[in-house]
Amino acid sequence: MATLFDYLKWRGDLSLQQTALNEIDSLILSRLSYLPWDGIVPASFGREISVAEAGEIFFAQDDPQENLIMKADLPFLQAVAASPRFANMTLCGYTNQVDPAREKQFAALVIKAAPELAYVSYRGTDLSLAGWKEDFNMSFCTPVPAQLDAVQYLNDAAGTLPGFLGAGGHSKGGNLAVYAASFCKPEVQDRLVFVHNHDGPGFDACVLESEGYRRVAERIKTFIPQSSVVGMLLQHEEDYFVVRSKQVGLMQHDLFSWEVERDQFVYLDQVTDQSKFIDHTLKTWLTHLPPEQREQFVDTLFSILEATNASTLRELTLNWHKNARIVLRSIREMDDEMRRNISHALGLLLEAAKQTALKNVQKSMPRPKLLPGRGQEQNKKP
Q1: pLDDT per residue over 362-375, tens digit each?
Q2: Which of 18, 106, 127, 297 would staple 312 via disulfide (CB 3.0–4.6 Å)?
Q3: In 3-state terms, what secondary structure has residue 168?
Q4: What are 90-108's pLDDT values in tens digits?
Q5: How far apart are CA 313 and CA 308, in angstroms?
Q6: What distance in Å separates the CA atoms of residue 164 and residue 301, rounded to the nearest whole number?
Q7: In the chain, count of helices (H) and strands (E)?
Q8: What is the pLDDT of residue 311?
Q9: Sequence-separated (6 or more) residues with CB below 8 Å from residue 138
Q10: Count of Cβ atoms closer than 10 Å to residue 40 Cβ
Q11: Would you call 291 helix, strand, or coil by DSSP?
Q12: Residue 155: how many CA atoms within 13 Å on its side-chain side?
């Protein structure tokens, strides 16, 4: 059950001249945008810092773990910064924006993997409630602010950096990479050699049917674990590749759990029945819940969380005793309309789950066998 940590040990001493950039390299580069590079990586596309130097500055901080989204990011950065394959790559163009008023969370950076290739890495959802609200907003709104920023960011990067471009991201970052590739300038699209979506949600029809998406569709690859939930949300026009994960359920969204073999992922033929069940349930639910009702549901849900005055998931969980009381009080104090919105949406979700379960039971039931020689007679119309 080897992971990208094993890959860094096995192949991390090989330069890109020895072995070309591969899909696991792309996963590693997409994760680098999750690191809190504030004050370390230049915001300008014209100034660069090597991965090794940026890592040295990062670890010299008093508490380098303080702003990490996942604890595994610490040993991950140590391994990447010490790897000859990645240490001399350079970073630039770092931006990290959280705007609760606009319900926006956007972060990205560029990794110059080689003189002729720049990789645009989009961060997925961080710990901010604004970021999570924006994710939920994707169910009824296109584009969300981060998607617009992603397009502008790719155009700006291409305007400064020479050569070919790659784009990728994990979770929402994968969605942003595909959206940016679909709606950037045509001359920028011509320079894109690949777009990698690592378990990121899809889009509604207005994106998938756009001319820009059609132009880059053959260069898009989506990777999802076998029990994917996030990566199966909304619609995907492109084919997806199922990667084996050593985790279970929702925890498979953790890219550190994805299994690798030499310089590629360990693939499976299809996702699990559980993933199909959740996917069908959520798609059925959204089909029966009009966009305006989705918006009401999301706004009501997050208004309850905002009553705690927490701005991040960490703040929400650190004071969970106090915040749980506030949440319960907010639910009790909801007006009749808000209560109806929540009840209606949850009722449709339960009904969608029931319909999916019933279809699965019907599919699994054995067909009755006809008596020999009588099948055609029994099926004749009178």
Answers
A1: 555 555 444 444 33
A2: 127
A3: strand
A4: 999 999 999 999 999 999 9
A5: 11
A6: 43
A7: 16, 11
A8: 86
A9: 144, 175, 201, 234
A10: 18
A11: helix
A12: 13
